C-alpha cells in the first residue's frame, strides 16, 4: 500500500492498541503492526502518550523516551523521537515519579499530584504530538497503558480512551489468554466503558494462545454475540521474542533473561553472568546482548550465595542509587562483591551500578541522603547534579568501536585506575577500570559486537574459563529478526484486512452498547495515593 491514508489535507490513519491488563502484550502487538505495515510500504510511526517505565532510551536529539517506543520505532524503520512518547514517568519509590516531558525531566510528583491535575494539563501537549506524527506519516499506531477500563482514572486519562476520543481512533483490545479469563476480561473491559468510549472499541486480539485454535472459536463467536465486536486475530505463544520490556520492577529475580534457544558454546566452557536485581532497576536490557551470545548464561540474583559460581557480576542501572547501595549491604551482596574484586574476579557496573562501585556518592538530588560511602572498588567520586545528562556518545574500548547512551544525574570524578572508554585520540570519555572491576555510565555499550566479544574474552581470561565468544553474533541483526517475527505474527494470525480498514477508515458505525457502562464518577479527590493503585504501564 502506497501513499497516505485518508484524504489530502487530513491526518494520516491511526489505531489505538489497548489491553485488558498491564503486560497483555500491547507493546509487542504495536511493534508487530508497525513492522507489518512498513513491509507493505506504509510510512508508520508508533506513539504512546504516557509511559511508566524505568527502561528508557535517548534519541538522537537528546530526548529521553521509553525503550518500548524506541523498539517500536525500529520496527517501523524510523528514527525515534520525543513525539512518540511525550510523557514518561520514572518511578522513584512507591509514591512518586520523575516526570519527563518531551524528553526532559520537569520534576517529581506524587501519584495523587499527577492524577489530580498535572496529567490533565499535559493533554494538549499529548494531542499536539500525535497530530504532528499523523501529519507526517501515513499511519500512527498508538499504544495504550494498563487497561482502558481503569474507572478510577478515567477522568484524567490521556493515554487510553482519552486520546482515542480526542483523535477519533479505533481501538483494538489485546488480552493475554495465557493468564486465563480472557473472555471475561474482554467483556468486562468493554462493559465498564461509557457509551462514548465503547463506540470506539472495534474488536479484540487474543495474545499468547497455546493449542488448537478451533477449540477457541465457539467462545469467540459467543463473545461477538455478547459485544457485537469481532476478534481480529489469535496470536500464538511465541518464545524468545526478546523485545525491550517496559518495567524493570517486575523482572523475575531468578528467571532466564530470554527463553530463546541459542547455539552451543564455541569454546569448552560457558560463561556465567549474575545480574544483581537491585531496587528500581533501570535499563536491565543492557544485559540482553550478553544473553544473546552462545555459551553465556545470564540470570538475575538477589542473594550473596548466588554470586559464588558467577564468572561476571553486573551491577545494573537504578533510579535509586543510594537505596540500591543500602540493599546490597543489607543482603550481604556488597561484601560478596568486595571479596570477588579482591580475588581478581570480574565485576561490571553500568550507570547507577558504576556509581555504587566508587568511593563516595554525594546526593542532594535523587535520594537527598547527602554523602554516602560507596563500595570503594573504583577510584571514583560521584556528585549528583540537578541537570540530567542525556547523550548518545561514541568512542572506543579494548581497541573496538563502542556506541551507547547516557541517562544520569551523577557526575563522576575519576582519580585513578585505567581509562575504560576513550575517543579516537585516546582521551578518556567515560568510566574507569581497576583490576578486574569495570564501570561506565554508558547504557547499550554491550550491543557493540566487537567490544562485547573483546570484553567477554577479557572476562573469561580473568575468570579462568575456556570460553570463546562466537565470531559472528550480530546483536542488531538478531533484533531485526525478532521484529520480523512480530510482523509475521500479525501477517499470519491477524485479520490484516480488518486492521487496514480500521487504520484507513476509522471506527465502523453502529457498534452496539454493552451494559452497564461506566459507573457514575466518584469524588475527584478520591484518588489512590500509590503508584501501583494508579498504574499506567
From TrEMBL:
GO terms for biological process: cobalamin biosynthetic process. Keywords: Cobalamin biosynthesis, Glutamine amidotransferase. The keyword Transferase does not apply. InterPro entries: Class_I_gatase-like (IPR029062), CobQ/CobB/MinD/ParA_Nub-bd_dom (IPR002586), CobQ_GATase1 (IPR033949), CobQ_N (IPR047045), CobQ_synth (IPR004459), GATase_3 (IPR011698), P-loop_NTPase (IPR027417). Residues 523-537 have a biased composition (Basic and acidic residues). Residues 16-247 form the CobQ/CobB/MinD/ParA nucleotide binding domain. Residues 512-537 are annotated as: Disordered. One of its GO terms (molecular function) is catalytic activity. Pathway: Cofactor biosynthesis; adenosylcobalamin biosynthesis. It comes from the Bacteria. Residues 272-449 form the CobB/CobQ-like glutamine amidotransferase domain. The keyword Isomerase does not apply. Residues 513-522 have a biased composition (Pro residues). CDD domains: CobQ_N, GATase1_CobQ. The active site is at 351 (nucleophile), 443. Catalyzes amidations at positions B, D, E, and G on adenosylcobyrinic A,C-diamide. NH(2) groups are provided by glutamine, and one molecule of ATP is hydrogenolyzed for each amidation. NCBIfam families: cobQ, PRK00784.1. Belongs to the CobB/CobQ family. CobQ subfamily. This is Cobyric acid synthase. It comes from Streptomyces gilvosporeus. The lineage of its organism: Bacteria, Bacillati, Actinomycetota, Actinomycetes, Kitasatosporales.
Amino acid at each position: 500500500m502506497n501513499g497516505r491514508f485518508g484524504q489530502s489535507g487530513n491526518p494520516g490513519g491511526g489505531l489505538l492498541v489497548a489491553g485488558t491488563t498491564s503486560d497483555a502484550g500491547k507493546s509487542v502487538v504495536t511493534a508487530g503492526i508497525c513492522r507489518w505495515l512498513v513491509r507493505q510500504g506504509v510510512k508508520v510511526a508508533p506513539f504512546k502518550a504516557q509511559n511508566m517505565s524505568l527502561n528508557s532510551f535517548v534519541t538522537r536529539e537528546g530526548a529521553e523516551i521509553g525503550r518500548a517506543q524506541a523498539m517500536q520505532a525500529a520496527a517501523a524503520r524510523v528514527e525515534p523521537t520525543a513525539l512518540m512518547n511525550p510523557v514518561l514517568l520514572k518511578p522513584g519509590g512507591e509514591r512518586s515519579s520523575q516526570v519527563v516531558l518531551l524528553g526532559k525531566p520537569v520534576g517529581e510528583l506524587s501519584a495523587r499530584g499527577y492524577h489530580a491535575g498535572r496529567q490533565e494539563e499535559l493533554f494538549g501537549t499529548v494531542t499536539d504530538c500525535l497530530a504532528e506524527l499523523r501529519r507526517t506519516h501515513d499511519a500512527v499506531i498508538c499504544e495504550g497503558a494498563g487497561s482502558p477500563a481503569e474507572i478510577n482514572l478515567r477522568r484524567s486519562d490521556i493515554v487510553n480512551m482519552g486520546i482515542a476520543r480526542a483523535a477519533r481512533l479505533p481501538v483494538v483490545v489485546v488480552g493475554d489468554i495465557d493468564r486465563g479469563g480472557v473472555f471475561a476480561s474482554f467483556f468486562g473491559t468493554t462493559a465498564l466503558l461509557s457509551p462514548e468510549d465503547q463506540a470506539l472499541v472495534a474488536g479484540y486480539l487474543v495474545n499468547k494462545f497455546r493449542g488448537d485454535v478451533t477449540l477457541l472459536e465457539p467462545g469467540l463467536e459467543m463473545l461477538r454475540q455478547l459485544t457485537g465486536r469481532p476478534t481480529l486475530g489469535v496470536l500464538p505463544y511465541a518464545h524468545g521474542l526478546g523485545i525491550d520490556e517496559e518495567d524493570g520492577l517486575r523482572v523475575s529475580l531468578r528467571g532466564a533473561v530470554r527463553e530463546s534457544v541459542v547455539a552451543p558454546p564455541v569454546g569448552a566452557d560457558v560463561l556465567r553472568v549474575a545480574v544483581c536485581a537491585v531496587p528500581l532497576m533501570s535499563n536491565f536490557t543492557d544485559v540482553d546482548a550478553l544473553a544473546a551470545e552462545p555459551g553465556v548464561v545470564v540470570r538475575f540474583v538477589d542473594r550473596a550465595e548466588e554470586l559464588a559460581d558467577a564468572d561476571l557480576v553486573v551491577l545494573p542501572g537504578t533510579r535509586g542509587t543510594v537505596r540500591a547501595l543500602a540493599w546490597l549491604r543489607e543482603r550481604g551482596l556488597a561484601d560478596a562483591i568486595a571479596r570477588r574484586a579482591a580475588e581478581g574476579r570480574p565485576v561490571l557496573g553500568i550507570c547507577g551500578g558504576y556509581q555504587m562501585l566508587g568511593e563516595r556518592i554525594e546526593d542532594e538530588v535523587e535520594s537527598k541522603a547527602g554523602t554516602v560511602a560507596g563500595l570503594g572498588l573504583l577510584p571514583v567520586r560521584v556528585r549528583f547534579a540537578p541537570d540530567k545528562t542525556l547523550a548518545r556518545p561514541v568512542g572506543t574500548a579494548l581497541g573496538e568501536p563502542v556506541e551507547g547512551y547516557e541517562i544520569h544525574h551523577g557526575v563522576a570524578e575519576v582519580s585513578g585506575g585505567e581509562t575504560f572508554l576513550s575517543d579516537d585520540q585516546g582521551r578518556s570519555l567515560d568510566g574507569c577500570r581497576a583490576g578486574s572491576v569495570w564501570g561506565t555510565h554508558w547504557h547499550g555499550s554491550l550491543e557493540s559486537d566487537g567490544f562485547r566479544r573483546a570484553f567477554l574474552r577479557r572476562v573469561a581470561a580473568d575468570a579462568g574459563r575456556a570460553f570463546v565468544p562466537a565470531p559472528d553474533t550480530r546483536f542488531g541483526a538478531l533484533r531485526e529478526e525478532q521484529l520480523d517475527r512480530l510482523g509475521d505474527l500479525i501477517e499470519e494470525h491477524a485479520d490484516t484486512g480488518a486492521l487496514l480498514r480500521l487504520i484507513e477508515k476509522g471506527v465502523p458505525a453502529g457498534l452496539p452498547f454493552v451494559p452497564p457502562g461506566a459507573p457514575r464518577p466518584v469524588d475527584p479527590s478520591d484518588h489512590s495515593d500509590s503508584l501501583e493503585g494508579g498504574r499506567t504501564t
